[in-house]
Amino acid sequence: DLIVIGGGITGAGIAHNASERGLKVALIEAADFASGTSSRSSKLIHGGLRYLERGEINLVRKTALERKEIYKLAPHLCEPRWMVMPMSGRTMLYSLRLGVTTYERLGAVEAKDGHRAWSGSTLAEEEPALDRKRFPHALAYREYLTDDARLVLGNMRSAVGAGVAVLNHAPVTGFVREGETAVGAEAKCAISGREFAVRARLIINAAGPWVEALQRREDEQAKPFLHLSKGVHVCLPASVLPISNLLVLDTQDNRRIFALRREDVVYLGTTDDTYERGPQHWPEIERREVEYLLEPIPRHFTLDPIAPEQVISAWAGLRPLLADPTKKNPSELSRRDELLTGPLGVLSVAGGKLTGYRGMARRV
User: Fold this and answer.
1) How many whole angstroms separate alpha carbon 186 and alpha carbon 295?
2) Residue range 234-293, pLDDT digits in tens
């Protein structure tokens, strides 16, 4: 019935959902499962509080509610943690509290899991390294840490258990056509070199950053609709940045990044810069990006500046955002998703967020 091209969270979610509806499904991935954007995220299941500030209420409502459902379905992949926003004054605290209350209502958060205002004594106990002279207050609310790649594989395994045929390391090379309709996908096994075709009533293009390139195999004149944005994360030993929770830090260019504690490490991210070199699995990480992520540390903590040489690992991925000619800054672009039908009837899925993958699958 259905061919899904792409083995990230979007493709895995679509295949899983379709199999539960009784459809016969095949999923084809060019590289390894979750090898692209779906393993390069901040590893958070969150509604996106900052999108509420931009008035994207529907997006926040959908993802905040999905966050709750994912926790119910896969608590082993959703670890509830405090997201802590340090505050320099009470006025800022009261203003943010109103926004967080709205956020929690949109996400149907129960009172017992609601936000907390942390005083100086609580901050001293929870985050002793934080500069409490500069940040005497904080607001803490619940978000969820996940393992993004494992979330993909969990959906993939459930799909296989429901009868989905999956294959990785098999790039799609073209479409099988009957008249003006695509009735199948042609692919080549990257290991054996064998070429083959799979036929289906409907083809879904869920290739993430490669969705445009695949659409051009359907229509060489297809207009670009993606804006690729690179996101970099860096990882430090927790002994170098001793935090206990998930913290929100302000950057010099008025953005916010996360500092996230996970076992014996802390990772910081993310950057959000336009990427013009086309889709690839391993976008380069530049020293200036590492320095950008480390810069807020001495402004928020009673710690010395941290040098790039103290970073123990890093990762970068590409976000396939929907382009908007009126907005050049990728941080201003919406994280909404959209379904596009090509001239041969191939349905392309563009945009979206990790947390919203189930909603995208239902709409498909």
Assistant:
1) 48
2) 999 999 999 999 999 999 999 999 999 999 999 999 999 999 999 999 999 999 999 999
Residue ranges of domains in the chain? 1-43+147-225+334-364
For the whole model, what pTM was predicted?
Answer: 0.94
Q: Are strands 2-5 and 202-205 parallel, antiparallel or unpaired?
A: parallel
C-alpha 246/C-alpha 233 separation (Å) is 14
Q: Cite the DSSP H helix spans in 21-56.
A: 49-53
Q: Give dist(CA 236, CA 144) in Å, integer.
A: 20
Q: Is the peptide bond before 270 cis (omega within 30 degrees of 0)?
A: yes
Rounded Cα distance between 236 and 218, Å, is 44
Q: CA angle, corner 356, sides to 350 and 359, nearest 5? A: 85
Handedness of CA 68, 319, 31, 16 (dihedral sign): positive
The CATH number that domain 1-43+147-225+334-364 falls under is: 3.50.50.60
Contact by Cβ (8 Å): 269, 234: yes
Backbone angles phi, psi at 176, to 5 degrees: -80, 125
Residue 163 CB coordination number (10 Å): 11
Residue 84 CA: distances (Å) to CA of 22, 29, 69, 138, 293: 43, 38, 23, 6, 18
Specify the residue for token string 């297809």.
222
User: What is the rounded distance in angstroms from the CA atom of residue 4 to the CA atom of residue 118?
Assistant: 47
